[in-house]
Amino acid sequence: MTHHLGLTGPHPRRDRLDAGIARIAELLAAPDLLSALTEEGTTELLGPGPGSPFSRGTTDASDLLEQLAPAMAALPDLESGISRPPLALCVAVIDDLSTQQVLRGAAELIGLSAEQLTADASALDRVDLVVLTPVSAGARYSVPPEGTVEGSEDQLQAWARLLLTEVIPRCRREGVPVVFWDRTTRSTTATGREVASACDAVFAVSEEAVRRYADTRRQKAEVTRVPMVVNPLQNSPLGTRSATSAVIAMAGAHVAQSPRDLRVMVEWILDGISAQGLPAALLRRGEEGTLPAGHGAGFAARHWPLLVDDPGPDAIAALDRVTDIGIVLNDVISSQTLYDRRIIELQASGSMVLSGYNQGVNSYLPHVRIPQSTADVADTLGSLTLGELRRVQGDGIRTAFSSHHVSDVLARICTAVGLSAPRPAERVLAVMDQVEHTGQTRRSGQTDSLEPVDPLDSVLRAELGSQTHAEIPLVSWDQVSARHGSYDILLPVSTRRHYSPTYVADMISAFRYQGAGVVAKLDGTAEQTDRAALRHQTPSSARTTATTTGSASAPPALDLTAWWRPAEGPAASAAALLAHAHDQRIFFSDHLGHHARGLGASMRRDRPALTVDEDLAASSKLAAATAGALNLELTVIVPVYNNGDHLRHKAFASLRRSSVFEKMHVLLVNDGSTDPVTVDTVEELAHEFPNVTAYHHGGGGSGSASRPRNTGLKLTHTEFVTYLDPDNEAVHDGFAQLLADIQSHQDVDFVLGDMTHWASRFGRLHYSELLRETLADHQDASGTIAVPGDALERLHFRPMGIQTVVARTDWLQACGLEQPLGAVGQDSYFFQQMLYYARRVRVQDIGVHTYYSAVSDSTVNTINPGYFEKYRPLDLARADWLREVDKLQAYRDLRLEPFFVNWMLPKLRRLESEPSDWLFAAETLADLLGYYGDHEWTTPEAVEFWDHLAEARRRAKP
To answer: What is the rounded distance in angstroms from the CA atom of residue 348 to the CA atom of residue 240?
Structure first.
């Protein structure tokens, strides 16, 4: 398998990685760290060899930018998207050059200062909209207002008074709407909120800022959250494939004021890059010259050699385009909407992003890589194939231009204040030339009806009907003329191919960041197509290629093209359109989003066949054959439901980093996902990797991970088994260590490790330590624990994660355990049962997987009146089982009340603002507690709950 970053074999070289990390540790212990770095040089730690920019003795990375300068200069000019012409409006931006640049090409722009606006009576003559920003509210005027000191609070207030008493009233008199647009990701200021309160409308990129502005609004109009924006004239992937470099850069580097967890993550990233021998550069803002001791912008001293003076925004934008990977700090953790806008800018430039943890990034941008440790970063880079890299980058490009295009956001702002700025979704019409059916070929144009005969291929129709952009109508060529003028994009398709749910969205995003009227997908692998990707081909460039190589460039396959508003003549037939292509400038995007269709076991299944329960017996035979043929040892059961992007970029990517990936049988059990992207992702991974097997349930989701986990255990045919949820990640090569331990101890039922987790900070649950210390008197000299009959009581029934366990399959299957269908929290109950039935277990003091507990819209984080209903099947099953094994009283004494007070009550309190919601949820919770029988409640919180419930019941009576 080909690897983009130069390492051979399917997995990183662990010996080299471990040696690199060990050497970093040695340097950290040196009395004079900076001298140690100088003596060591940076060849081994920070560069791949003698030819690296980091040659021996180099103490800074400044020559990296010099070496990249030719590639940066050779980049093609950036273009506006053909589908995003400027709005027919004139927008004035007050005292904010950066926002003027961001809006370039989105409308006619005028840059004004507040002083100019108040002094020039004609300044607003052509203006349709005035934009103020936090920079406007704190601008540096050429002459400070009289009687103030530059930069003082008095000056800020004077600027605010100028905006409030002169600028905004002047605009109102002239009938020009004024909006306040905060596109920063920093905290709001009192001055900015005061100015915003007087504007006609306020827009901000985070929910936190929206709330702060709303609290100070003088008008009733809502404050609106809008996305962060990218402008293709600033950030674009055009020409990036031929100019790529191995350098990994971080712009605006400064971590001195960042929380400790974020500084640690930056060290993980930089040390992981260094351990792989890759070059990196940190472009710092601030003072020029050599950094004195103690002034490394907050970075560890071993990273000072990477610091380079910031070359300016234009050079950074070019650097983003010639580097495949970029680093972003993210100085906020606990927000679902507030994160560094550099993430979106890097994605728009075609970069994969390594980012510090942020809740919103984890929830909504799963293709952004979040580090878990130094080794995790090194493994990520070392195991990254070119195909995987291009997939991450392609998802980022589509995300940036589908959801963050500056023209779309500006149109939304204009519409909100009554200006005409229509920006409808692109209308797409798919056209197919002929139908291939049961070995025969028939023309589809044998009827005038728009409902095609035969019926234009049900598979193709289903794929076009499940596009993320919208449902795409499918017609034949003789029906296109009648539709002329009713579509923006003509999309030729054929039955030779499958088209992924994001295929149309990819085409549309390409029309948004470049100016050619024809977009084409490439046909082949990443390695085969890479040099042609993200580039234009014109008739002249094709002739040049023919002259230099002796053969003309191959025209695009018609069924891999999209055409922006083609003229009626060329769109009359497939032949006419293909002939027209020879005279057109064509943009080739990438190879993603399609694959050949055909028959046989090697071909992927059609989507309509994946909407019903598969035959479990047949699937079990297939899974057994796969496990046997590949000599697989460990099954990883991954329950999947409508989270395909997280599956691909979180769970599966982390398994790919494991040193035992090729020994794993990855079972992707789809719980009836209704999201086409998820179904497509499951099938694609199963098709691409021989050790991956997919099973599909139909009929929609079952309500929890129980059903797919139960199915997965039935399909397991390896000696050992574990679990991993799609939005979690395997870390620290933990599965490999647990597998090695249980293989060397044949009398052990399972081996347990630890769980790391992210919420408002990074943490680790030390399951191994807890189990080892609690059962220390039953542990032998080798570390094996003979599980006593009262193990659950000793642990106070504390559950541990089944995703941190590698278990013996025949033992687990013989236990006959079933996770309750539709229940949440079922994995905790499952572990309690596993420990009860286990005879001998072992523990390993290592993090095995990372759990992200603050995922937006997750089952456990979505608190509503019906929340506790999700626990009903769990508590009913657990109470029955505890009664069966004679541990119900012990559970009531040791676990029931602490769990109720510490877990359930905090969630219930979130409903207190709505008494009816609280009462409904509290009644449900009381039912659940009743399953465990009579209990004398003693803690003040529990007693208060029952008193509150009795009072609420009394008030609710008619």
So the answer is: 11
Closest C-alpha to 847, from 767, 750, 759: 767
Task: State the Cα–Cα distance between residues 666 and 692, nearest whole angstrom.
Answer: 5
CATH architecture of 607-852: Alpha-Beta Complex (3.90)
What CA–CA distance (Å, rounded) separates 926 from 921?
9
706 touches 822 (CB < 8 A): yes
pLDDT confidence band for 388 (50 / 70 / 90): very high
- What is the band of 68 on the pLDDT scale with cuts at 50, 70, 90? confident
Q: Could you tell me the two tokens for 839? A: 């005879």
Give dist(CA 654, CA 372) in Å, integer. 11
Q: Would the CATH topology of 428-596 be identical to that of 607-852? A: yes
390 and 647 Cβ atoms separated by less than 8 Å: no
Task: Domain 87-225: give its CATH code.
Answer: 3.40.50
What are the residue ranges spanned by the domains of the chain?
A: 14-75+236-384, 87-225, 428-596, 607-852, 867-956
* DSSP states along 291-356: PPTT-STT--GGGGGGEEE---HHHHHHHHHHEEEEEE--S--S-SS---THHHHHHHTT-EEEE-
d(CA 312, CA 12): 35
Phi, psi of 880 (to 5 degrees): -65, -40
The answer to whether 270 and 280 have CB atoms below 8 angstroms apart is yes
Segments in 720-825 forming alpha helices (H):
734-743, 767-774, 791-794, 809-815
Least confident of 427-436, 721-730, 820-829, 830-839: 427-436
What pLDDT, on the 0 to 100 scale, is given for residue 802?
A: 96
Q: What is the CATH number of domain 428-596?
A: 3.90.550
Angstrom distances, CA of residue 104 to CA of 56, 80, 309, 710: 44, 9, 27, 55
What whole-number distance in Å separates Cα of residue 624 and Cα of residue 675? 28
Query: Which amino acid belongs to residue 124?
Result: L
**Strand residues in 461-542 grouped as ranges (E):** 474-476, 489-493, 497-499, 518-520, 535-537
Q: Does domain 14-75+236-384 have CATH number 3.40.50?
A: yes
| Structure-token pair, residue 30 | 């040196």
pLDDT, tens only, 505-522: 999 999 999 999 999 999
pTM of the model: 0.88
113 close to 136: Cβ distance less than 8 angstroms? no
Q: What is the pLDDT of residues 239-291, one digit of tens each?
A: 998 777 788 888 876 676 667 778 888 899 999 998 888 888 888 754 444 44
Phi, psi at residue 810, to the nearest 5°? Answer: -60, -35
Beta bridge partners of 488: none
